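Subject: complex prediction, re-run

Hi both,

The earlier run crashed halfway through, so I resubmitted it with identical inputs.
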Amino acid sequence: MQGELEGFRLGAAPRSPSLAGKKVGLVWNAKRGGDVALDRVGEQLGRRFPEVVVTRYNGNFPCAPQLLEKALEECDVFVGSSGD
Amino acid sequence: MAIVSKEFEENARVSSQAFGLPTNRFVVVPDSPEGIAEDKIRAEVDAVIDDVVEYLTTPPPVPGGRPAVTQLQAQRATTIEHYQGRDQFEALDQFNRAFLQKDRGDGFSLVPPTPERVAEMLKGTTKAPDDVVAILQPGMGIATVEKIAINCVMAGCEPRHLPVIMAAVKAIEAMGFYARGWLMSTSVNAPMLFLCGPIVEELGIHTGQCTLGPSKWSQTNIVLGRALRLVLMNVGYNRPRVMDMDTIGTPLKWSFCTAENQERNPWQPFHVEHGFDRDTDMVCVTSMRNQIEIADFVSKEPETLLNEFIHGTLSKDSAFAVSNRGEEARPQTTTDPNGRRKILPGGLFIMLAPEHAELLSRFQWPKASIKNYLWMNQKIPARWVANLVRWFPPHEVREEWKWVLKASEYDLDRTMLACRPSPASYHIAVVGGWGAKSLVFTCSELSMMEVTDRTR
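This time it finished cleanly. Structure:
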């Protein structure tokens, strides 16, 4: 039940005004270069916010639900990569 | 939020709407990272990191959704548009210009879907106009009978063609999430509509000389293939540069429809081979890539002919058997208990020229032997696999292939490996006319679906 179907609409996840002390998950879909971009995002977040813990999750296309559930348990904030 | 490259911005926006995240926000970088230097990727991330942080730490400005999804939903309702001109030809031109401008067309002139023509088209099926045939990938559009009928009119179809396209839409839905992958891919995926059963002759599908080409002979093939293309674009949102990101594209995307040449097929019909009754009408939909002609008019025995296929179709696609990409979404190769549909594994789709089929059958080779021979002998050196596997992220390599990363140089050079998973990866159909020229494609999973709901 997606797309055009009425009622299927997900809101954005709640935001925190700071990422300080947050656990950030980088979810990679195995597309070339996405890992480089995600890692750079992780590095930059680490420089800007104290005590950010960054974890990379190596997913696939599509991402295995088990991996997403694991990431959900372990992290507060996610940055993913999708497509090419 | 998402970081997207400029060419993929519209794709990301429409995808977010279609997949239920209408409030998603985007930071745009110039390049897609797949083929550019790592330093450049990092520099492009650095340039937008302030926006990334802002979007990660502030809620979207319009909680609950932007109007884009509403726009998609509004398209569910059929609307009447009026086009005028000094005469009907000019009005027709106005209609075509407007429809192309709205990205509703394939670039060629369309047949106006007037209410009268749509009503006539709907007579081709026993289903009601509002009946939902399928939820169509990649944009999760609601494919009602009426919407499909409208696109069939625009493609130039007759009412009796409508149930074929309805079945094709169901066949794509049966492939699930996997279809989204090839429909939206940057690879050159062309959906093929392959018909089986008495309906082939009944509708006048041309299966002989130049079956896949233009002309009056292939007119039915052409309008059916075109109708599927228009349905994919207008109902499934599978529009180039929107939700079809094919790098180069192919003319096969306009229309790609054929069937077996039963008069010259020495074996069982394709659908009978796969367990359906001879009298069952079926469509088979798959995504085709990498068109390769195998011209061999000198072979006098099966082995040398088949070796031409083996050598001519060694492509890097074969190495995809080492990757587990798409595994989570891969449709299971099953038949439903009612025998109305089936998913077959992907691999090679061989359109075997009747002259080549004649040679093989003269030596009394059943299709199963041909497939076994191809599988047993289409081998690649382990070194090829190892060279490719090194580029895969380790977690994307199937367990049974990880040994190539540890193999000795000696073994890599000495070991030859079957490059496709099984004989079932080879699909063979006798297609076309005179000439010892077969045509081979790599194909995704094949989805077979019975054609039902026809008006008799």
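Residues 58 and 375 of chain B are 56 Å apart (CA to CA).

- K.
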